[in-house]
Design brief:
Helix 9 links the parallel strand 6 and strand 7. Helix 12 packs parallel to helix 14. The chain is an alpha/beta fold and about 400 residues long. It is built from 14 helices and 12 strands. Strands 2-8-7-6-5-3-4 form a 7-stranded mixed beta sheet, sandwiched between helices. The protein is globular and about 55 Å long. The chain binds pyridoxal-5'-phosphate. Pyridoxal-5'-phosphate binds next to helix 5. Pyridoxal-5'-phosphate (PLP) binds next to helix 5.
């Protein structure tokens, strides 16, 4: 069977080799601890599940939802932006529900890319930015996120010729995989670049609510002029342990959202209405704040366990201010993949090789804080027993 270039050209599935090693270890009876994939381990809060239970029984929810999403959900997102960031959004035009933010991130390129166009994507970064670009027939320019620059891209090194052909710029703070954060000054620079080069900023804010020690990440839309030149993708997956529910949104530029809306109406029919009502509950219920705060403390404790153990094993790592990842360099003499294989063989602990997020991720690995603290301690004890870090 001849497959299309867009399928043939997909990079080999990075985790295939690791998955095979995990299966082999499990077959041998190894007690594998998975710190690879960033999927919240705790259940969706009860108040959200209860609302879903009610909504699912109502016949009014059993038909196709409106293409533009339920007004109730769009208004809830708008209220959340007002409360949390002081940003006023028109729920009619500046909020669009998504079937998980990944859906919108993957499809936005099809709305802006013609052959020969370029998207600016962070490296290391969430792979969907580049894959969506590839599927739309575009090229990617990889913006290096370097430790020395706080894992923020340096716009001044983007060649003039590339900037001229660029259509979208993907950004993601708090950042997966590095845990880095961006301040409003950085977003202001992004707006300036976007206006100068007629580029649309697509800010992925999946980890906006996962932050520690009182640090509160800012929204891209807080930057003056942001809503004229960009959008922010948001997700209920990570803040509310709802990864399986598939509910997210895009907010910002009405013109950008209108294009995405037109595209979507031709390929999907929106989110189950009951899920959208559960999303309203997630955002609006007074218990939301309580849930967010206790979730932050859970990840903060886990983060501290990991950072402390890495220090004891010889690493110099700074504790991330946000996200549920710890990003650290691999010891000298290893590639990212070799080190991940070594850890799995010696300790049964699974982590993610930095090279899976792009060439600038080579030399690093990522630990996801998505297991309970006793298991995390066990994993870190094993790592301490097997590795003495030398840079
Ligand atoms: C988890 C994640 C997403 C996807 O979230 P969904 O809303 O579940 O699709 C998007 N971006 C980043 C960086 C993520 O880590």
């Amino acid at each position: 069977m001849k497959k299309a270039g867009r399928i043939e050209k997909l990079p080999p599935y990075l985790f295939a080799e690791i998955d095979k090693k995990i299966r082999e270890a499990l077959d041998k009876g190894v007690d594998v601890i998975k710190l690879g994939i960033g999927d919240p381990d705790r259940p969706t809060p009860g108040y959200i599940v209860e609302r879903m239970q009610e909504e699912v029984t109502l016949p009014r929810n059993h038909s196709y939802p409106p293409d533009e999403g339920l007004m109730e959900f769009r208004e809830a997102v708008s209220r959340y932006y007002k409360r949390r960031f002081g940003v006023e959004l028109d729920p009619q035009k500046e909020v669009l529900p998504l079937i998980g933010s990944k859906e919108g991130i993957a499809h936005i390129s099809a709305c802006f890319i013609d052959p020969g166009d370029v998207n600016l994507v962070p490296d290391p970064g969430y792979p969907v930015y580049g894959i969506g670009t590839l599927f739309a027939g575009g090229e990617t320019y990889r913006m290096p996120l370097l430790e020395g620059n706080g894992y923020l891209p340096d716009f001044s090194i983007i060649p003039e010729e590339t900037a001229r052909r660029a259509r979208l710029m993907f950004l993601n703070y708090p950042n997966n995989p590095t845990g880095a954060v961006a301040g409003i000054d950085f977003f202001e620079k992004a707006v300036e670049f976007a206006k100068k080069h007629d580029v649309v900023v697509c800010h992925d804010s999946a980890y906006l609510e996962i932050s520690f020690n009182g640090y509160r990440p800012v929204s891209f839309l807080e930057a003056p002029g942001a809503r004229e030149c960009g959008i922010e993708f948001g997700s209920l997956s990570k803040p509310f342990n709802m990864t399986g529910w598939r509910v997210g949104y895009a907010v910002g530029s009405a013109e950008v959202l209108e294009a995405l809306y037109r595209y979507k109406t031709n390929i999907d029919s929106g989110n189950f209405k009951a899920v959208q009502f559960a999303g309203v509950e997630a955002l609006d219920n007074p218990k939301a704040q309580e849930h967010i705060e206790s979730m932050q403390l859970v990840y903060q404790e886990r983060r501290d366990v990991v950072v402390q153990a890495l220090k004891e094993a010889g690493w110099t790592v700074t504790a991330p201010k946000a996200s549920f990842y710890v990003w650290a360099p691999v010891p000298q003499g290893y590639t990212s993949k070799d080190f991940v294989s070594y850890l799995l063989e010696k300790t049964g602990v699974v982590v993610t090789p930095g090279s899976g997020f792009g060439e600038y991720g080579e030399g690093y690995f990522r630990i996801a804080l998505t297991v309970e603290v006793d298991r995390l301690k066990e994993a870190m004890d094993r790592i301490k027993g097997a590795v003495r870090y030398k840079g």
